[in-house]
Specification:
Layout: E1 9-10, H1 16-29, H2 32-51, E2 63-67, E3 75-82, E4 85-92, E5 97-99, E6 103-107, E7 112-113, E8 119-120, H3 124-136, H4 139-146, E9 167-168, H5 174-188, H6 193-205, E10 211-216, E11 228-234, E12 237-244, E13 259-268, H7 278-283
Antiparallel strand pairs: 1-2, 2-3, 3-4, 4-5, 4-6, 6-13, 7-8, 9-10, 10-11, 11-12, 12-13
Helix pairs in contact: 3-5, 5-6
Biased composition (Gly residues): 285-303
Region (Disordered): 271-310
Protein name: DUF3500 domain-containing protein
Length: 310
């Protein structure tokens, strides 16, 4: 398996009934919108496997793993991942909470036709929300935004979540702040309404200290240019969205498989990666920090640790 050895069961090794049950777990974890996005990501990888020149063996391969025993009273984790997807969902029955940090969403290509002849755009919602925020800004705000430092802080990196230069939440109007929260919700709002509302409130509370940076195109037009990259870095949220300027051997005639059409993103919660499981943070090479008596930062009950995300 290229890049990472994944934990758990490969869906390709399951019976049709077992595969349906595994996908039902994923569907139960996610909102309808998030499940559609994830399904589109998976479909894109399978499209590349069938139509591109790529020899990447991980395309079309998806794994599901549980860490800890599923329970409605304690904490456990469901990990689901493949080539352009890495979901870490920690569920804690004691607090009725779900966290999705860190999670990786990627796409290649950005537009493709599925087996039923339908056009699929897995990241159209993200792009739409990103440009709704960008277009709401004044020329001066846009200049500050695009002069900032776009960053990428993946699990395993030595990362102190330094926000760098850019436009801050304190520079935004109330309406612009809501558009920024709508954009971050593509990652922080992947679960049920209660979890999404809690995440949004937490991010909003420190939005004035959050820094946003942007590079690349300023109009949502995938027929020109090389796409966009941006990062959103605050005390309670970290999102990085980066256009990949290369097809990684996944060329398809007439289909964009780089720039606009090849994107990697990461979502992290600087206060709550892996639900503050020290075991999982250590396994993924994260410094993590510690809370009381060497426990998770800020306390918390960690599930049994597992290997790192995608």
């Amino acid at each position: 398996m290229t890049f990472v050895q994944r934990a758990g069961l490969n869906l390709a090794d399951l019976t049709d009934e077992q595969k349906t049950a595994a996908l039902a777990v994923l569907q139960a974890l996610l909102s309808d919108e998030a499940y559609d996005t994830v399904s589109g990501i998976m479909g894109g990888d399978e499209y590349l496997q069938q139509n591109s020149s790529s020899t990447e063996q991980s395309l079309g391969q998806y794994y599901i793993a549980f860490f800890g025993d599923p329970s409605d009273t304690g904490a456990f984790e469901v990990q689901f991942g493949g080539h352009h997807l890495g979901i870490n969902a920690t569920l804690d029955g004691a607090t009725d909470a779900i966290t999705f940090a860190p999670t990786h969403l990627g796409v290649q290509p950005a537009v493709y036709t599925d087996a039923d002849g339908n056009e699929v755009r897995p990241f159209d919602g993200i792009y739409t929300d990103a440009f709704a925020f960008f277009d709401s800004l004044t020329g001066e705000q846009q200049a500050t935004l695009t002069s900032g430092d776009v960053s990428m802080c993946a699990p395993g990196d030595a990362c102190d979540f330094d926000a760098g230069a850019g436009l801050t939440g304190a520079d935004l109007t109330d309406a612009q702040k809501q558009l920024l929260l709508d954009l971050t919700a593509n990652w922080s709002g992947m679960a049920d309404e209660q979890t999404t509302a809690g995440s949004r409130a937490k991010i909003e509370a420190t939005l004035d200290d959050t820094v946003i940076a942007w590079s690349g195109e300023t109009t949502y037009d995938m027929s020109s240019g090389d796409g966009i990259s941006f990062s959103i870095s605050g005390p309670n949220v970290y999102v990085a969205f980066q256009a990949q300027q290369g097809s990684a051997g996944a060329d398809v005639d007439g289909v964009s498989t780089s720039g606009w059409g090849h994107v990697h993103t990461i979502y992290r919660d600087p206060t709550n990666d892996y639900a503050n499981s020290v075991t999982q943070q250590t396994a993924s090479g994260m410094g993590g920090g510690s809370g009381p008596a060497g426990g998770p930062p800020g306390g918390g009950t960690p599930p049994n640790g597992g290997p790192p995300s995608n």
